[in-house]
């Protein structure tokens, strides 16, 4: 398999270029063509051309870069490799890569194997559609994501923790309605997370039972608890030990419909998709990817 590396130098709060320098010799030894892109559109153009030639594509960046290239790979039935150099790297975690060691991820091309994994798909009422790799979410964590995307000094779990504490202090839950495979739920949730992988937010283990190859989405809802209790429970959400806490509900399904206030946003893999209402479904075995 020939490989083309699509690199986002701005990944990891501008640490992508530094990580690429560490990987340069290893990429050159494998005769891998490297394209440092200036935009998502440019990365897509390079990836589409590579898939059309029959190359595999290495996504060298964070979850945003991986999401864009995974969608392209699914559309082309192309093979994707992941080199984590972002601030979150949650899809890398979800497929068993060490998010702190890009060089080890590169060795997966030699010692790993190809498999097929699920993707989630979000469709909003205003016409936006996105295939996503990790978690789609709305409510508190949507506001957390919006603020975190403006911060340049922190990354990973530390960034999400600071953003979450800041947002919990001011966020007010609103009435929402969900239908999960025909089963209706209504309430005023702090957050709704629809997970393909088990973690988001730079390692927050929001859906510890989620698997990327089971053809299902794991839905986590936090509701009916005070602001102070949400703050106290937050460390357990990071560790993935929160599913037994009162006010945390866990569902599984293939189609999730979410409705709420017209100005409430939904995010997926760290990127804004659009406004509610939204329908989320699973695309089983949609992505060819190299794993350890």
What is this entry, summarized?
The chain is globular. The protein is of the alpha+beta class and 292 residues long.
Count of alpha/pi helices? 9
Q: Which consecutive residue ranges, at least 5 long each, have pLDDT under 50? A: none
Largest sheet: 10 strands, mixed
Total strands: the figure is 16
Q: Please report the first level of CATH classification, the CATH class of the largest domain.
A: Mainly Beta
CATH topology-level fold name of the largest domain: Tumour Suppressor Smad4
Radius of gyration: 18 Å
What does this protein look like?
- The protein contains 9 helices and 16 strands.
- The strands form 2 sheets. Strands 1, 2, 3, 4, 5, 6, 8, 9, 13 and 16 form a 10-stranded mixed β-sheet that branches.
- Helix 7 crosses helix 8 and helix 8 runs antiparallel to helix 9 (227-239).
- The protein has helices at residues 11-14, 16-29, 40-53, 63-76, 90-94, 102-111, 140-148, 156-168, 227-239, and strands at residues 3-7, 33-36, 56-61, 79-84, 113-124, 129-132, 135-139, 176-180, 183-187, 189-195, 217-223, 248-253, 255-259, 265-268, 271-275, 278-291.
- The model has no long low-confidence stretch (mean pLDDT 89).
- The protein folds into 2 domains: 3-111, Probable inorganic polyphosphate/atp-NAD kinase, domain 1 (Rossmann fold, 3-Layer(aba) Sandwich); 121-284, Tumour Suppressor Smad4, CATH 2.60.200.
- The radius of gyration is 18 Å and the shape is globular.
- With 292 residues, the protein is α+β, with helices and mostly antiparallel strands.
- The longest helix is centred in the first third of the chain and has 14 residues, at 16-29.
């Amino acid at each position: 398999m020939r490989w083309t590396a699509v690199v986002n130098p701005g990944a990891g709060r501008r640490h992508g270029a530094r990580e690429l320098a560490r990987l340069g010799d290893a990429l050159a030894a494998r005769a891998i063509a490297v394209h440092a892109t200036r935009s998502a559109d440019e990365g897509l153009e390079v990836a589409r051309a590579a898939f059309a030639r029959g190359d595999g594509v290495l996504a060298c960046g964070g979850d945003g870069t991986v999401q864009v290239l995974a969608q392209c790979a699914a559309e082309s039935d192309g093979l994707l490799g992941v080199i984590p150099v972002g601030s979150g790297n949650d899809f890398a975690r979800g497929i068993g890569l060490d998010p702190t060691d890009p060089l080890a991820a590169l060795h997966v091309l030699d010692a790993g194997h190809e498999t097929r994994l699920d993707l989630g798909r979000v469709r909003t009422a205003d016409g936006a559609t996105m295939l996503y790799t990790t978690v789609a979410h709305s409510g508190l964590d949507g506001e957390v994501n919006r603020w975190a995307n403006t911060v340049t000094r922190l990354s990973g779990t530390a960034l999400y923790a600071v953003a979450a504490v800041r947002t919990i202090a001011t966020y007010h839950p609103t009435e929402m309605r969900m239908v999960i495979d025909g089963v209706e739920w209504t309430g005023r949730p702090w957050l709704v997370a629809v997970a393909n992988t088990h973690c988001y937010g730079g390692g927050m283990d929001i859906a510890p039972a989620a698997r990327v190859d089971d053809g299902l989405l794991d839905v986590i809802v936090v509701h009916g608890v005070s602001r102070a209790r949400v703050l106290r429970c937050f460390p357990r959400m990071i560790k993935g030990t929160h599913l037994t806490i009162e006010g945390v509900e866990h569902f599984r399904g293939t189609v999730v419909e979410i409705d709420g206030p017209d100005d409430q946003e939904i995010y997926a893999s760290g990127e804004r998709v659009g406004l509610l209402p939204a329908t989320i479904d699973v695309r089983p075995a949609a992505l060819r990817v190299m794993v350890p």
